[in-house]
Amino acid sequence: MSDIRNCIIIGSGPAGYTAAIYAARAGLTPLLFTGAEPGGQLMITTDVENYPGYPDGIMGPAMMGEFQKQAERFGTEIKYEMINKVDFSESVHKIWTESDELFEAHTIIISTGASAKWLGLPSEQRLMNKGVSACAVCDGFFFKGMDVAIVGAGDTAAEEATYLAKLCPKVHMLVRRDEMRASKIMQERVHDMPNIEVHWNTETVEVLGEEEVEGVRVRNNKTGEESTLDVKGFFVAIGHKPNTDIFKPWLEMDDVGYLLVQCGSAKTKTEGVFASGDAADKVYRQAVTAAGTGCMAALDAERYLVEKGIL
Ligand code: NDP
Q1: Residues with CB under 6 A from ligand 1
Q2: 118-236 has which CATH code?
Q3: Gap between the Cα atoms of 207 and 221, Å rounded
Q4: Residue 2 scores a pLDDT above 60
Q5: Is the pTM of this model over 0.85?
Q6: Which residue among 83, 101, 195, 202 is least enclosed by CB atoms within 10 Å?
């Protein structure tokens, strides 16, 4: 029997598991590598209230447990290992685990996700999920009626500040320079919201509180003056880093590292390699969109195998 697999999936967030469910049901007997953080970004969130089908919400880790169970039910093989090297130079693609074991497959589905960037403050780490969040769309609702702060000045920060301003009486936007990187239209939206106060030249010194966020200490980096903002939520929107470094020699990506796929598909320019989820999406970054592109990747992989006469 050949050791060459039909389909290997790298990553175990909503994209990876959805790809696995579709690939397994299509008879591809997929092998999925979970990576270092099985379950992906949802494992560090609490309630997920915006994923359709869970009217009462579900905890992120519980939801990923369900995804995994569903993938396994149809025969997905799961390995709790990290892939740290790939070679996509031939039609049979090669990948290596951390322990240097080689696996080969006709199709590879990449669902390695992206990681939110953090400021790196100990207080930010301590209060993670206790008022500190990197996703306003996911967690903003929990701060309805409360004052919050958001760090960042790109399109994400502008979009999330505007989103929060519809839920919260006051949004403090902490911008480290005297201008924003966000597009003009997004900046205009921020300025049009009367309850967003932009603090220019402002850095975060510390998030206050032990068990929940009780405020944030900020410093004006021009004057050195420090002050405390009375907020219950602290959002960090300073960018994401797609987990795609190992694919750099082989796949097209933008300057940040997001994988490029052909419009309306999950196909990369390399035959038999498909990308899904946040690793290829810098705009939406939602569990439900990741699941959708995971499905696309599996369907594209199945079609590819049929076209090549492998399946
Ligand atoms: P960006 O990299 O564009 O912006 C990051 C922001 O965070 C910058 O303003 C940066 O400040 C600030 N920042 C970085 N590190 C720190 C720090 N340590 N302390 C304080 N501030 C910090 O990331 P985004 O996530 O905003 O956007 C990523 C890409 O996605 C962009 O191309 C964007 O256009 C796109 N996007 C598009 C959307 C849309 O079209 N609707 C929505 C969201 C994103 P500084 O400017 O000083 O470097």
Answers
A1: 119, 151-157, 159, 176-177, 181, 238-240, 282-283
A2: 3.50.50.60
A3: 17
A4: no
A5: no
A6: 101
